[in-house]
Amino acid sequence: MSAFTIFLGLIVIVAFLLVVVIMVQNPKGGGLSSSFGGGGTQQMGGVKKTGDFLDKSTWFLAGALIILILASNLTINSGGATESKALDTEEAIETPTLPMPTTDGSTTDGSATE
């Protein structure tokens, strides 16, 4: 299994977790924290902490996703460079040029056309 395949699997997992964490949040202060018992800001049971956890996990997952995408890009570039290395060297096969006919009936290489 290549490094790119591993990074791709991790990217899919992190992206799915990021979607779940974002969907649990409510932009107006509700979401998961309001379903545990109220809208007060001085809750002792961890309701305020739930919002903080969701906020921090969103930022952590977003950062992890960016890092994984950049790391997978590095594996693509290093893997692709070895495959196209033969095309960059002088040993590459040159395409032959064909003689072009001119207006006086001869070709560019000096032979006459019929």
From TrEMBL:
The question of whether Ligase is a record keyword is answered with: no
What InterPro entries does the database record attribute to this sequence?
SecG
Give coiled-coil spans as residue ranges: none
Q: Which superkingdom is the protein from?
A: Bacteria
Topology versus the membrane, per the UniProt entry?
Multi-pass membrane protein
User: Which keywords fit this entry according to its UniProt record?
Assistant: Cell membrane, Membrane, Protein transport, Translocation, Transmembrane, Transmembrane helix, Transport
Compartment(s) of residence: Cell membrane
Where composition is biased (Low complexity), the residues are 102-114
Please give the start and end residues of each transmembrane region. 6-24, 58-76
Q: Where is this region: Disordered?
A: 85-114
Summarizing the function annotation, the protein's role is:
Involved in protein export. Participates in an early event of protein translocation.
- Please report which protein family the annotation says this sequence is part of: Belongs to the SecG family.
Protein name (record): Protein-export membrane protein SecG
Which species does this protein come from?
Winogradskyella litoriviva
Phylogenetic lineage: Bacteria, Pseudomonadati, Bacteroidota, Flavobacteriia, Flavobacteriales
Gene for this protein? secG
